[in-house]
């Protein structure tokens, strides 16, 4: 193929999550297009799903994609093989593929290449510490982990409301909020057990807890402060295990910490007690910004141990 006939060489960034997948295509002249596609199912191999999402987006477009970077939820060590992704999208002309868990791309989206910690708290939570080495803390799911997450906050709020219903504690505001949303408190446990979407349903009650806190409910505020403390404990553990220096950069991602100042401040305050010289810094960009940074990760950066790379000779040219 003559150089003049070559299709434009795009770069693709894929943020594969359990609630949806977002793909951004960047052209050689830096024009960007973003696409929302189906979520990633973690009960089946995740890397082929990434390839399927990209092939769907690229179908019918007169482009070729030179490089693909992907951050994905649920990526296990056994699936950390960028060659699988590279081979699956070979017909697009891809000659470089970079793959990482979304905790890594979440770190890059918030801290870029600075050393420190990033706590990503949404329905679940995971903290990554990056220093001399990389340390992941929590992210163990709602049954055995995710302390400080939206699910954890929602669960604590529902527990407090049911204690008030029983007369074991007082939080009339949370009980009223539960009743208004779910109906009879005595039937709620059966309703939740039968609901296949019970995890996001419980997590959604975190917003109610925050609203009750804003309205002056002391029990709700204590739950938020406790969530911040748990996230701070995770950040400190990540910093210590990663061998962080005395001036780590602390940042955050996810709706829990982005939207709630009470939780965020409580987390930061706990970290500062252990690392007085830590620098809390607002997140650099969105998740796809972190995915794109995989492609320019310095070769001596600690995060390289958590990234898979595969290359082949360019198809075009």
Report on this model:
This protein has 317 residues and is α/β, with parallel strands linked by helices. The chain has helices spanning 47-58, 82-88, 102-111, 141-144, 150-166, 172-182, 188-194, 198-214, 218-242, 255-259, 261-274, 287-293; strands at 9-16, 21-26, 32-37, 64-72, 96-101, 116-121, 125-130, 134-137, 249-253, 279-280, 307-311. The termini are close together. The protein has 12 helices and 11 strands. Helix 3 crosses helix 12 (287-293) and helix 6 packs across helix 8. The strands form 2 sheets. It has a 6-stranded mixed sheet, sandwiched between helices. The protein has a 5-stranded mixed sheet with strand order 8-7-6-9-10, sandwiched between helices.
Q: Which properties best describe this structure?
A:
317 residues; alpha/beta; 5-stranded mixed β-sheet; 43% helix; globular
Please sum up the structure shown.
It is built from 12 helices and 11 strands.
Q: Could you tell me how far the N terminus lies from the C terminus, measured between alpha carbons in angstroms?
A: 7 Å
> What is the overall shape?
globular
Q: Please work out how many helical segments DSSP would assign.
A: 12
Percent of residues in helices: 40-55%
What is the H/E order? EEEHEHEHEEEHHHHHHEHHEHE
Write out the strand line-up for the largest beta sheet, numbering strands in chain order.
Answer: 3-2-1-4-5-11
Q: Mind telling me the C-alpha Rg?
A: 22 Å
Mean pLDDT: 92
Class from helix and strand fractions: alpha/beta
How would a crystallographer describe the biggest sheet?
A: 6 strands, mixed
- Share in β-strands: 15-25%
- Regions with little confidence, pLDDT below 50 for 5+ residues: none
- The count of DSSP E runs of length 2 or more, i.e. the number of strands, is 11
